[in-house]
Amino acid sequence: MTDNSHSCQALVLTCIDFRFHEQIARLLHDQGLESFDLKCDAGAVKYLVSNEKPEVKNWILENFRIAQGLHHIQRAILINHYDCGAYGGNAAFKSHAQQLEFHKNQLMQAKDLLKNEFPGLHVDTYFAALEEESRVKLVAI
Ligand SMILES: [Zn+2]
After folding, report:
1. Of the N and C termini of the chain, which has fewer Cβ atoms inside 10 Å?
2. CA of 54 to the centre of ligand 1 (A)
3. How far, in Å, CA of 105 to CA of 54, rounded?
4. How far is the CA of 2 from the centre of ligand 1 (A)?
5. What mean pLDDT is predicted for residues 73-94?
6. What gap in Å lies between CA 29 and CA 134, rounded to an integer?
7. What's the average model confidence in pLDDT over 78-101?
8. pTM to 2 decimal places
């Protein structure tokens, strides 16, 4: 075993929603991401961005600190998704475009916050759309 066995490339922050996990992991793997830590939280970046639950926000940030310290992550990958119950699901939005725009804004706020907290960290953001036959598509934001 080498030291590298305890390193991975990224911490992925995504929602708890079961519909997305398997496909997100496969899509990230297809993009060349071989190993990553995974933090699932209802709403993905929701409580990182809002001050509604500061204990959750702090705990998510602590997970990034732990992943950096233990697994030397270089990247954060933030993934919000379509029809997210933590945001009120599809019913909370007038259209798909409005929903995408909303999540784009959430993800940008989360990216700014993480860049501020972890200056060396590379942050990628995605919106996981749900297409026909429950197929997940990752849209880079
Ligand atoms: Zn969700």
Report:
1. N
2. 19
3. 20
4. 37
5. 97
6. 19
7. 96
8. 0.94
